[in-house]
Amino acid sequence: MAPSGPGAALELRGIRKSFGEQAVLAELSLRVGAGEIVSLVGASGSGKSTLLSILIGALRAESGEIRFGGAAVEPAALGHDRPFAYMPQRDVLLPWRRILDNAGIGLEVAGMPRRIARARVGELFGPFGLAGTERRYPRQLSGGMRQRVSFLRTVVQGKPVLLLDEPFGALDAITRDELQRWLLEIWGAHGWSILLITHDIREAVRLSDRVLVLGAAQGRADQAACIVGEVAVTREIPRADGFLLDPRVPHLEAELHQVLARAAG
Ligand SMILES: Nc1ncnc2c1ncn2[C@@H]1O[C@H](COP(=O)(O)OP(=O)(O)OP(=O)(O)O)[C@@H](O)[C@H]1O
Ligand SMILES: [Mg+2]
After folding, report:
1. Which of 28, 55, 150, 245 could in theory staple to 91 by disulfide, Cβ–Cβ 3.0 to 4.6 A?
2. Closest by CA position to 75, among listed 64, 91, 90
3. In the chain, pLDDT over 70 holds for what percent of residues?
4. 119 alpha carbon to ligand 1 midpoint, in Å?
5. How many angstroms separate the alpha carbon of residue 87 from the centre of ligand 1?
6. Which fold has domain 1-83+172-265?
């Protein structure tokens, strides 16, 4: 069971959102416990990115409650000390800033002098496979490299909650594997609470404590979505070496596929 109440890093209750006539989210509730990694999977267009946009205050829900660390908040009203860092689905690097300064922009916006921000993020260029790109501009990087810069910019902010919208979507299999390992390693050290959107069932199983499935809410005429299923992943499964060899992994993947198929009707 997920921790509840004050133990929850993030909690949503009864979120509803429509765009004009189109109802997208219906009474959606979910919880990410302190130190948990929770993945959200669901069909394209089911409302995953919309949900994160509501969480960061870029969109407003028609109703419902958002809590970080147990306190109800209006995300749009939060300042630079907001408890989360967000990685959008599409990279939004600034074309006129060098990669080093793009990676450090979250720190600068929060008030850190550029020199210190550069030193802080510069140390991570090696581990992120970005060594040598510091002085380049975004247009000079591949899509996968830009995604790594965007991921680096998010995690370096030192926020307790990470909201990641398909962070590894554009990466090749080997880089994806490396960054997944890296994320698990530093997650262990930092104890972040993470809500991660992914299309990749294997990634969801590997990275998560729980995988939530977003799908059409029952008993409604429209396609508005809520959480329709959940699969828990035991921490007994090794997540780095040995993950693919663990016999529980294919069972969990099959279970998730089933829940997703049911959600799609
Ligand atoms: N700003 C907007 N104005 C109008 N409709 C929108 C807006 N943003 C999203 N939508 C619609 O809301 C629905 C959910 O979109 P959303 O981007 O949240 O889906 P998603 O689950 O993130 O999909 P994907 O997996 O493809 O990223 C879609 O039908 C989309 O067209
Ligand atoms: Mg999306």
Report:
1. 150
2. 64
3. 97
4. 37
5. 16
6. Rossmann fold (3.40.50)
